[in-house]
């Protein structure tokens, strides 16, 4: 049946989405809170240590988000199985997703460690380059458990159980802050490790998250019907390949966005520690607000996937539009907040006046791209609920690698061979202008793609 935008229908769908999204939101905020704690606590040691964390976290974030995207295939697969009532298939899908996680995690750890070779070519002080490389070497021990945790996370969310994610993430944040306090500052008789203390803390917490999720699934009654650990199962390569075909484009989509942000962090390293640190703080806070529309998006995968599994594309379209509207509505509020309180936000991260001033300036651009960032993540997640992942990948590659990064390089670096480059490099400001425009392109193209896809699926069923 078609769904009208009556107040009761919108309220019902918004309520259902919120019930799924709010525990994910709290969990995501707690997870991002770990990165916030790393930057904020290291920012009160020295500028060199903060720069090391900033650069190391740039590589870590690129790899981590890409792994997350690849593993998100299980969300769509299980949501469709739930919608179709095929509960007997879910345990098999989860077991194969865990095998997939081992391979993805190993490959990601290799790529993360190889990426540290870039630090030798970025005009960095030798001490900062060495600390950033060690940060990545240590923290990469968490990539295999992270991939496995995300497989179980997706399974749990797609059977409508998102609260475990919230509880585990909150506990992880508290443990991370405690270990940071001990190792970053050298408390309780431990050596003062600075940036490396953050890496150790994060690696330990990721392993604890996986153990906690396995125990929760084993104990909680909600998982008994689809419990995945009833028996041993060897890899089933056709199933894993199917999930890779669905997940790799999602991973590339995530990579296209986050790698541009990471590349910007690396490219502006030539402008000094103050610029690098201010950029990382502004990006860190923007990532924090981004967790809200991202959480709506994860809930939308479940809502859209389950509706399609039931054979109801009209409901899937309605869920997509309501979720998109909720995401953009929040973005309006976050944009105003960042613009008004940008100086206070900067001061909360660092006590360095020069870093504070630069950060407050960059936060204005973060406020500008709130709307487009929210729209593009909500639209792309809804499209994934349709098991369509290649077109968002192409759009993201065009928007970020075809628009955002090239334009940012022209404005930020002002190369002599580009006719329309500014007379003087705009430094971080130029790169952030490129990011704003790239996100806008992604938002427009993805929203149009979602509207066309959802309408076509709904009409196809209506005409039968």
UniProtKB/TrEMBL annotation:
Domain of life: Bacteria
Chief place where the protein resides: membrane
Pfam families xrefs: MatE
Topological type in the membrane: Multi-pass membrane protein
UniProt xrefs under CDD domains: MATE_NorM_like
GO-annotated molecular function: antiporter activity; xenobiotic transmembrane transporter activity
Ranges that cross the membrane: 20-37, 57-78, 98-119, 134-153, 165-188, 194-217, 246-269, 281-301, 321-341, 393-414, 426-451
BP terms from Gene Ontology: monoatomic ion transport
GO cellular component annotations of the record: plasma membrane
Keywords of this entry: Antiport, Cell membrane, Ion transport, Membrane, Transmembrane, Transmembrane helix, Transport
Compartment(s) of residence: Cell inner membrane
PANTHER family assigned to the protein according to its UniProt record, in alphabetical order: FMN_FAD EXPORTER YEEO-RELATED, MULTIDRUG RESISTANCE PROTEIN NORM-RELATED
Protein name: Multidrug-efflux transporter
Organism: Pseudoduganella plicata
Lineage: Bacteria, Pseudomonadati, Pseudomonadota, Betaproteobacteria, Burkholderiales
